Amino acid sequence: MAFIDLNNYFLKAESKGLSPATYGVVLSFFRFVMLVFGPIFGVYMEKIGLKRAFVIGVFLNGISPVLFGLLDFVDSYTPYLILSLLLRGFEGFGAILFLCSMFMMSTTVFHGRVAMSFAILQTVFLVGNSIGPLLGSLLNSSFGYAAPYILFGILQMITSVLAAWTLPKDTLNTSSSISNSLRGYLEILKIPSVAIFIYACGVSGTGPEFLTAILEPNLRQFSLGKVEVGLVFCLVAFLQLVSPLWGYLIDILKKPHLFALIGSIVMVTAVVMVGPFPGINPDYGILVAGLVTFGLAQGILSVSSITNLRLSIMQNGIKESMISISFVSMGYLTATSVGATIGPLMAGVLYQEFGFQNATLFLIVGNLILVHIFSNLHNRNNLK
């Protein structure tokens, strides 16, 4: 579905009989497939080839939304649900291919500015996801429900053809052997700090998907139009535009623990504003300010999480190689996929049972744990 027109998808799904909990499962299935296939592709990426993985992944992410848009013609509940799950899974299969290959390319090519290069990629990806609802709403209002899915799907398929034509093989494929990748992965997993930073990556992947699943139903109390709802979704992307700045500062200052601590504190503040915290009356202005703050925090957390994961491996005596680069890419994507799978699922269930305000406590608790972890790590580093 490529996050093109989620606010209208929710309305369409409910018209087909799907509850918030059910279409939360549909959304999370995309990341569930990424979770399953991420470790597999990480191990066998050299055999697949970075360029081939990228091209195939982008193409699959193009054809999936085209078919998803045509689901508008399916009226029965069960066929609509099954086909929605299948297409989301198909898209997730393509997404993990091109994302894993893309992160590995950037780490290999921009070796001295890994945080910066990742921040740029993450910014483009997240901003694209966030402005999708706005563009989707505009196209939906003008040309109908299927229009945004078909248009953006075709554009992605064209992109895959251009990538196959322009990307050089010698740049995208490595001569380093990763025949012992599984053994190398197990060695990395023995490092205690790796588990901490994988958890941080998972939390950073939970928030956006959690809010995406239930934000639109919550906005209905403010009687907004389709375009206005799309603009609200764009707010999450607004301050993620400065993510490359965080990447630059992390590369220069070498203090990813401090940035992770700041990001988790800002994230807790943002979610308290978006909810708002139970007992506080909902206010549209505070919600908007909270979403802008959320975008700022998300950028800091995403960049610092993958940087901490990479550095924790290197600081424990494991030299950077295609095995470690593959693990960082796969580990980050798998962890964020876990978070993004749990996010919509928990959001749908908690929203249905307890309402939006109480549901956001799930995010607050998860990020408070990060505050505790990174406070201890930062204080420990200061004592050295």
How would you concisely characterize the structure shown here?
With 384 residues, this protein is mainly α. The protein has helices spanning 6-15, 20-48, 50-69, 77-109, 114-143, 147-166, 169-172, 181-189, 192-219, 226-238, 243-253, 256-274, 284-314, 322-354, 356-359, 361-383.
Radius of gyration from the alpha-carbon trace, in angstroms: 20 Å
What gross morphology would you assign? globular
> Low-confidence segments, ≥5 residues, pLDDT <50?
170-176
Please count the helical segments.
Answer: 16
- As a percent range, the share of helical residues equals over 70%
Question: Which series of helices and strands comes N to C?
Answer: HHHHHHHHHHHHHHHH
Q: Overall pLDDT, averaged?
A: 81
Number of strands: 0
Keywords:
single chain; mainly alpha; 16 helices
What does this structure look like?
The relative contact order is 0.16. The protein has 384 residues and is an all-alpha fold. It contains 16 helices and no strands. It is globular and about 55 Å long. α2 runs antiparallel to α14 and α9 runs parallel beside α14. It is 83% helix and 0% strand.
Question: What are the SSEs and their pairings?
Answer:
Layout (H helix, E strand, L loop, with lengths): L5 H10 L4 H29 L1 H20 L7 H33 L4 H30 L3 H20 L2 H4 L8 H9 L2 H28 L6 H13 L4 H11 L2 H19 L9 H31 L7 H33 L1 H4 L1 H23 L1
Helix pairs in contact: 2-4, 2-14, 3-4, 3-6, 4-14, 5-10, 5-11, 5-13, 9-13, 9-14, 9-16, 10-13, 11-13, 12-13, 12-16, 13-14
